[in-house]
Amino acid sequence: MKTIGIIGTFDTKGKEFLYIKELIESLGLKTFTIHTGGFKPEFEPNISNDIVALEGGKSIEELMEKKDRALTTETLSKGLKKLLPRLYKEGKFHGVISLGGSGGTSIAAPAMRELPLGVPKIIVSTMASGNTTQYVGTSDLILIPSIVDVAGLNSISIKIFNNAVFAIVGMLSYETNKEVEKKPLIAATMFGVTTPCVDYAKKYMNDRGYEVLVFHATGTGGKAMEDLIKTGHIQGVLDFTTTEWCDEIVGGVLTAGENRLEAAAQMGIPQVVSTGALDMVNFGPYDTVPKEFITRNLYRHNPTVTLMRTSIDENKKIGEKIAEKLNMSKGKTALILPLKGVSAIDREGQPFYGVKEDEMLFDTLRKNVDKDKVEIIELENNINDKYFAETAAKKLIDLMNK
């Protein structure tokens, strides 16, 4: 019989958590309860708040004496983040659910993100709207809007709680017998303007027994790929689209942070890296472009995305940063340069065609990449040419076979 873990503040929201506990059990599953509130719970949990707090470095008594809500929340979050993965490994539960506002969500979410990919994890939260990156990160955590505050049982909250319970029970109650053939996993990065390249490479590798996972290089996509590499899921990387560095360096909206391009290098995973979409910085609708950029070469990609052509100086900075990251490599790495353009709109006749800008990018990489660690391959192609894509895919296979 499957067991669902329930995380929550059983002191201030005891009735709500007792409701979902009893509903889960009425559906034929077991429950395993973890109290993360500061005071005495309304029902006896399997794991007390003191156990959680001690994992975070302090006792509940210490926290209550200080009367510092922020410290209490931080300690319980830290403790649960350490405790929850251990309880899962011990087989205490198979999926986990929580309810809460900003406080409860900030305690439960970091711990849930530590659970393996595929473990059902749901939070019904007042914070499930807008930018939820701080809660979800790159995990498969599901946030369900609570609509009304998690403050009692009423005609609205009961419907939401029911749906959340039915969802997680369904996830654990139905298993498919379909077997997925295990193949070496390849991570590839793609943007709309590098889609043909990735499609060609993906087909080439699929035909030769590899499974290609495509990540949309929108900041979150790059972070998700880096996390999967670090957790050992990926055997090879086709990092065609390194455009997130444009946004990180210039100030666009799709940055993947300062650690992008580090995971494969540090893990020693074979990788083929290119310069896909390094001709563009991403902004939202046209009227959101910062004033200092309004006279630049702007391209309305669609109603919600405006692209800005990177300048010669910006390409120098981007090239230096990418070289710095590639030089960290502990494994087999190749840098493949498309000398006829880095995107679909960086070719002759297209709005971002820039010979001088691209030449600065390529020259900077040539000068700064450590040739003892990184092989540089230069092709007289646009990045979306079939020959370019298949050459990169073939190179990765060669690196993996070596």
UniProtKB/TrEMBL annotation:
The keyword ATP-binding is assigned to this record: yes
InterPro entries: Tobamovirus_resist_UPF0261 (IPR051353), UPF0261 (IPR008322), UPF0261_C (IPR056778), UPF0261_N (IPR044122)
Membrane-crossing segments per the record: none
Domain UPF0261: 2-175, 183-400
One Gene Ontology term of the molecular function aspect: ATP binding
Keyword field: ATP-binding, Nucleotide-binding
Protein name, entry field: Tm-1-like ATP-binding domain-containing protein
